[in-house]
Description:
By secondary structure, the chain is an alpha+beta fold. Helices cover about 50% and strands about 10% of the residues.
Amino acid sequence: MLQHAEAPSISATSRPGGVDEHTHSGTEELTRLLFDGDDRERVHGEWRRLIAADAFAHRPGLSPTERTELSYERLRLVNDTVAGAGAEALTYDARRLAALHEWTGFVDGGVCTLASIHYNLFLGSLLDHDGYRRDLTAYTAMERTGTFLCTELAHGNDVAALETVATLDPETGGFVLDTPNPGARKFMPNTSLTGGPKTAVVAARLMIDGADQGVFLFLTPLSDAAGHLPGIRVRQLPDRTGTPVDHCLTSFEGVRLPREAMLEAAHGRLDKDGRLSSNLGNRRKRFLRSVGRVTLGKLCMSGGTLGMARAALAIAVRYAHHREVAAPKAGERIPLTAHRSHTGRLLRSLGTAYAMTFLHRAVLDRWAEHDPTDAGQRDEVERLIAVAKGWITWQARDITIEARERCGAQGLFPANGLADLPLNIEGGITAEGDNLVIWAKAASELVFAHEAGPAREPSPDVADLTDLGFLRDLHACVERVWQTRARAALRGGPSGDPIGRWNETSGAALDMVAAHARVAAADAFLAAVARATEPRTRQLLEQLARLFLLHELRPHTGDLLAAGHLTPAHVEALHPATEQTVAALTPHLLTLVDAFDLPPEFLAATPIANADYLERFGS
C-alpha cells in the first residue's frame, strides 16, 4: 500500500538564504498563466503602466479630504487612459474592468472604489437600460462623475425593501423623488462636492396612482459647480477605516425629474399614458434586473482584493530576503528566508494567492461565455460569482494580515505598502453583497442544486499525497460530507418554522459552500498546471498546487478518515508531506512573486521591497 511518496524536488542553484538564482528570472510563463495568456497586454497592460507613473506614487502626510481629492484626480487619469467612447467599451469588457481594480487597488483603494461606482454601477447601468438612446458624453468625458444610490440607512442586505419613492406625476409625465423617513436616506454613496459635479443613478420605488410597481433606477443630477441642487440633502459621514472616500447620507425632498430620467428596458417601460409594461412577473425580479450590475461588481471587488493580496506577498517575500537576523554562529547573519517558520507561512499564502487568481480567471471566463437569456445558466454563474467573491476576499484579508505581520513593525508604516491593505479589503468584503449573506443565499441553493462529490470515488489504498487528482477529489468528498449534513438538518428541522429550519441547516450549509469554493479553486489551479508548456514551470506549479491542497485539507482529516477516504497512514503522512513541499518550494519564493509582474517603479518606491531599505528608512 502506497500511503506517501516524497514530493519530487525542483532542481535549483541556490545561494545562502534560499534564493534560487536560476529560476528567479524564469517567470515569463508563470506570468502568462496568471494574467490571461495571449490576452495579457489587452487586459492588463494599460493598467500596469498607469500605476507605474509618478501620479500613483505614495503621497505621505495627506489629510482624509486630501486623499479623497487625490483619488478623484487619479480617477480622471484612469479615464484619460480609456478616452472617450472607450469608457463605454470598458463597461462591457468584464476582464478589463476587473483588471482595472486588480491593478489600482493596492496603490489607491479610493480609486478602486470610485472606478467601480463610475464605470460599472453608474455607466454600466445606463448602458444596460437603453443607454444607447442617451448622450453619455458628460460621463464618459468625466465632466460629471457618476455615482450609484441604492442601499439605505435602514436597508442594506435587504435593499429590495428600500423606501425611497419616485412618484409618477400624471400632469407632467415626470417623477417626484422623495425620501419618506430617516431610515430611507441613501447610505454611503460618494455624493459630496469633492471630485466635482456629480450625477447619480438612484434606486427608488416607482409609485403610479398609489400602486407600488417595484424598484427602478432614475438618473438624477446631484450637484453642479455651485453646489448641491435644490431638494438634494447631503451630509458627510464620519471617517471610516481604510483609504477614505467621500461617503455621505443623501436624501431627496420633492426633487422633480423629467420623464426620461427613468432607466427603461424590457423588465420595465412606461407608455405615454403612464402604464407599465414588463417581461418580468413580479416586483422582486424587476428589482434584481434593475441592479444587475452588482453581479459584475462582485467580480470587480474580488479583483481589487486579489491584487492587494499579491502585492502584499511580493513586498513581504522581498523583505524576507533582505532582512537579516542573527545566525546560530556568533557574528554571522542570515536572511529571514532561512527560517521555515517564516517562509512556510508565506508559501502557504502564495499557494492560496495563485489559487485565488486562477479561480478569478475561470469565473470571469464563465461570466463572459454564459448565455444571459438562459435563466438556468445565469443563476448558476451568478451563484459561482458570489461564492468566489466571498472566498477570494476573505482569503485576501488573511493574506494581507499575514504579510504585514511577517514584516514586523516595518509593515505598520503606510509607505511600505502594507498597512492600509487589510482595511481596504474589509470594504470589498462588505461591498456588492456582504460575504456571509451572499454565501447564505448560495448555501440555500447548493443544498439541493447539485450533487457534491468527485466523479469517481478516491481509492485510498492505492493513492498517495503527491497525487494532485487524489487531493482534489478529497476536497470534493469534504463538500459532499457537509452537503449530506445540511440536507439531513433541513429535512429534520422544525416544520412550519422556516427560520428555525434554516438555523438548523445553515452551519453545515455554509461549510458546504466553503468546500465548494475550494473545489472550484482547485479545479482552476489544476487547469492552469495543465496549460503550462515548460517542464520547469509545470513542476513548480504542481508543487504549489500540492501545498495549497495539503494545507486546506488539514482541518478535514477527521471527516475523511471517518468516511474511509483517508487511512490513518495518510493522516500521519500529511504533516511531513507538507513540510517537504515547503522545503522544495522555498528556493523559488522570489520566482513565484516576480511572476506577479508588479511594476519596477512601484517596487522601487516601496522601501522594504529593496535591499537598501535600511538606508532609506526615514529619509
